[in-house]
Amino acid sequence: MKIIEYSVKNPLLVNLLMVGIFILGTIALIEMPRELNPKVSFNWVFVIVPYPGAGAVEIEKIITTKVEEAVDDVDDINMITGESSEGASFVMITFDDISDQTFRERLNEVESAVNRIDFPEGALDPEIMDFDSEDFLPVISVSILGDMPERELQKLSDALKDDLMDIKGVAQVSLSGTREREVWIEVQPQKLVQHNLSMTQIVQAIGSRNLNLPAGDIKIGRQSYLVRTVGEIESLDGLGKIVVRWDPRGNHLYLGQVANIKDTWARASTIARMDGQPAATLSIARKGSANSLEIIAKVKEAAERYRKQLPAGSSLVFTNDTGIWMKDLLGKLQTNALLGFVLVILILYVFMGFRNALVAAIGIPIAFWTTFYFMSKSGQTFNGSALFGLMLVLGVVVDDAIIVVENCFRHRHLGKSAAQAAIDGASEVFSPVISATLTTIAVFLPLMLMSGIMGKFMRVIPIVVSLTLVASLIEVFLIAPSHFTEWAGGHAKHTQRWFRRLRKIYTHILISLIRKRYLVGPSILILAVLLAMLIPLVGQDLYSGDEWSQFFVWVEMPSGTSLAETDRVIRAIEKFTEELKEGEVHTVIGNTGLMQVEADWIYADNVGQVIVDLVESEFRDREMDDIMEDLRGKVKNIEGPTSIRIKEVSQGPPVGKPVEIKVKGKYLEELAEVAEAVKAELRQMPGVFEINDDNQIGKTEIKVIIDEERAAMHGLSVAMVAGEVRSAIAGVQATIFRDGDEEVDVLVKLEGGDDLGYDGLRGLMIMAPTGAMVRLDNICRLEEAPTLFKIKRFEKERAITVSANINKSVTSAIKVNKEVMDKFEDISLRYPGYRLDFRGEFKEFEDAFKDLGKLFIVGIILVFVILGAQFKSIKQSLIILITVPFAFIGSMIGLLVTGNPFSLMTMYGMVALAGIAVNDAIVMVSFINNKRRNGSNKWTSIIEAGRIRLRPIILTSVTTILGLMPMAIGLGGKSETWGPLATTIVWGLAVATLLTLFAIPTVYSIAVDDSFGFRLIMDRIRRSKRSRKE
């Protein structure tokens, strides 16, 4: 081969190329941004339309359904989910797996469609946003806590926020735990009656007085002047001097005479604490291409400057520090990768001697550094998925070098010069090595097409693997032959001795198997069937992520519960966390009025959460599951909550709950009945707990029903009465007061309006256009009725979601969902018009299984095409492919033995294994064919090929296995994400190796058998066919 000859004859150029690769790769590795996970667009769009004061039913009718209908014509929509709650409409639009550019176009189309909707008066402007992996967790959060004046806390937080926004790479800083400053104009009810005033008149008086309005420009002589009417209020005292009623005699009525003016804060809708103290928290999100570790360092540097400004008793705390988690995960992967690399070097040294081992091993960094360069140029980041891809391919990369170097040494042993041995040895295996590498790439590349969020998270793995394998091919045929010529040595003498004995034993076994091939063949098949029968014993799980030393306690109270009562329960749970073992808890964050469940942020007085941030696992004695169970036992007897759920934070994409069943239909009463029936079935199943649904009764509503005839007698319309009632209770924004650079909302409300009570509401005085003051109960009647807290919709139908968690040691999500499916198979008969839609973890697993199955078929077809091109024989291609099902069986046995579940990650590993498992078989069959072409008989060719390939097959398999073994067993730190995937490949490859050494030669011998016995069998088959024809 010319490329190999060129390598051997130009060692200086080859070494310069190697140095260049190391320099460029090192620069790329240093410059590549670090992150925990690759940034992934979920293709989610949220449309939020606030409508203060409106109930769920009203919002569903006049907002949510309008949004659903408006966006329904946008292309590529996968699913629409709607939620109507007290005061707001929330619509989530999930798009298909489309490109980022197409998604941006669809987002613009959604914005245009929503902006064309005619929303009711009183509804606020819609907020439209997309959602990606960066929105789930900030890169870090900074909290200022302590007992300090609220204005000082707000001032410090705003100043720190401005500084953090100036950091390069920061996309957004969200501030929570503080309230917006407001000015309240609290109108005294008796003054309204005394002066015959309405709330509307006061709002109009303030709005018409506080103006700063440009009027255009005029020409005076040769100059042009801007004209502006200035009437802006410059101080709070100025607000009190606004005239609300003008009198020609000068006895004007001023705002300060009928109302109290307060410089205060917006009413608290949430309460935030950290470690029991009031806290303001700034959450920092990064831009997509920014380096997370650099941003975290700069955030800490900026925040530390403010620590000195804090008053006594206050402190500054960092939470959600993904840098710690990132270093932990990447540290585990790096440590395991390094251990794997050391083990690979050691095994190469044992089998090949130091110099040969060096020639083979140097291909690993060359391939990796080449990959770093192309990763950097293609915009990739250095993250957990990319690092695992490198670790996954660690042993495979060195396989090519082993095959080439070992064969070169074999030719050197035949008496050839080092240069000639390098040329002949590398040339002889050129074709099978290319085929073996291409088969691996052929299986990995289709994995780039894996759909869904999980597919996007893992898309970098096939990219990294393919880049590294291509780089490896270039190295073994362009660089390795030159290095062999200069550095090659002999095999270690002690290895030669024991390996000769091993090869002798192997040869005897192989000859025996070939002699008894018609017994061995069926025996292998029977053994495979018996082993396959153990597969159902393997547990199932969608995704096992590494823990992040943090868990949530979600609390739901009965509908109508006040914020203060909910806060009592949250404080009690915070207190219980103090009873956990000393040194286990880092920080405890309490949020009342907010419950954050993945992408679902619920704001209501009757919900809350406690976030428990633990110290890292190596600094505590108990596992997080044990700590959670301990706290679960402590909080279960708290009085008041309807549910308390505890859930850990795991690495990886959102997959939903193990049980998430949507009951769809038209009427809420029937939906609730079906949902209750589903919950009743779940309660009967072992291992199922925290069974809930999202159907909640809201606050009791007092309906003000206007008697239009009686109202008309006083000149009042429905809109006028509704406006006065709203102004009295909720208040109305009249204007904006500018205090320096700060803009402050000015609200007009009735003094004590939110504490009117039933009698106070009935006696509310409204000024009619006639000037008369009219009691509300003279023109209206009041009715009490329960309301719904929220109404969920799924694919434009009303839906109630039943959810549950499971004990994975007792049952599985698949088993539970299948049982519910069976129980409600006749739902259309029992509940006509109602259906169950199974979502969450079960749906994700089902979709991923189908998707990976299709991609596996594509990969196998590509492998078969490559094998056909290489061997030009369907028979031989099929012989090689029998390693795949046996490797799968080995993987499942490995999962069973190690106690790992069959999950999306292990499924991914098994698909990847299909490309790795056939490599040794390709080279084995290729050598048999070469021997036969060189004149050896078929039996000698099979046995001799086995003898020759024994060392490289053991080496290639053992290096791949040892490269992944540290991760599989957690030598450098256990990873729940990557460990099971590594286990899958280790066990599967071990079985495939045994098959290649013993079964492949045996099956090959059957396929080419033309002995008397074989001919006799074939003759009988032919005669049988002839007789049937006759």
Note down, in words, how this protein is organized.
Among the domains are: 2-31 and 325-533 and 873-1015, Multidrug efflux transporter AcrB transmembrane domain (Multidrug efflux transporter AcrB transmembrane fold, Up-down Bundle); 35-137, Alpha-Beta Plaits (2-Layer Sandwich), CATH 3.30.70.1430; 547-650, Multidrug efflux transporter AcrB pore domain (Alpha-Beta Plaits), CATH 3.30.70.1430. A hairpin with a 2-residue loop joins β8 and β9. It starts with a helix and ends with a helix. The model has no long low-confidence stretch (mean pLDDT 85). It is built from 36 helices and 30 strands. It is α+β, with helices and mostly antiparallel strands and 1030 residues long. It is elongated. The longest helix is centred in the first third of the chain and has 40 residues, at 322-361. The strands form 7 sheets. Strands 1, 2, 3, 4, 20, 21, 28, 29 and 30 form a 9-stranded antiparallel beta sheet that branches.
Question: How are the elements arranged and paired?
Answer:
Blueprint: H1 2-9, H2 11-31, E1 41-50, H3 56-71, E2 77-85, E3 88-95, H4 100-115, E4 127-132, E5 140-145, H5 150-165, E6 170-176, E7 181-187, H6 189-195, H7 199-209, E8 211-220, E9 223-231, H8 236-240, E10 243-245, E11 253-254, H9 255-258, E12 259-265, E13 271-274, E14 277-286, H10 292-307, E15 315-319, H11 322-361, H12 363-377, H13 384-413, H14 418-428, H15 430-444, H16 452-458, H17 460-487, H18 493-515, H19 517-532, E16 547-556, H20 563-577, E17 585-597, E18 600-614, H21 624-635, E19 643-650, E20 659-665, H22 668-683, E21 688-693, E22 697-706, H23 708-713, H24 718-729, E23 732-739, E24 742-750, H25 757-762, E25 765-767, E26 773-775, H26 776-779, E27 780-788, E28 790-794, E29 797-806, H27 813-823, H28 827-830, E30 835-839, H29 840-871, H30 874-881, H31 883-898, H32 904-917, H33 919-933, H34 938-969, H35 979-1007, H36 1012-1029
Parallel strand pairs: 7-24
Antiparallel strand pairs: 1-3, 1-4, 2-3, 2-28, 5-14, 5-15, 6-14, 7-12, 8-9, 10-11, 13-14, 13-17, 16-18, 16-19, 17-18, 20-29, 20-30, 21-29, 22-27, 23-24, 25-26, 28-29
Helix pairs in contact: 1-14, 1-17, 2-12, 2-17, 5-10, 11-13, 11-17, 11-18, 11-34, 12-13, 12-17, 13-14, 13-17, 13-34, 14-17, 15-17, 15-29, 15-32, 15-33, 18-34, 18-35, 19-35, 29-30, 29-32, 30-35, 31-32, 31-35, 32-35, 33-34, 33-35, 34-35
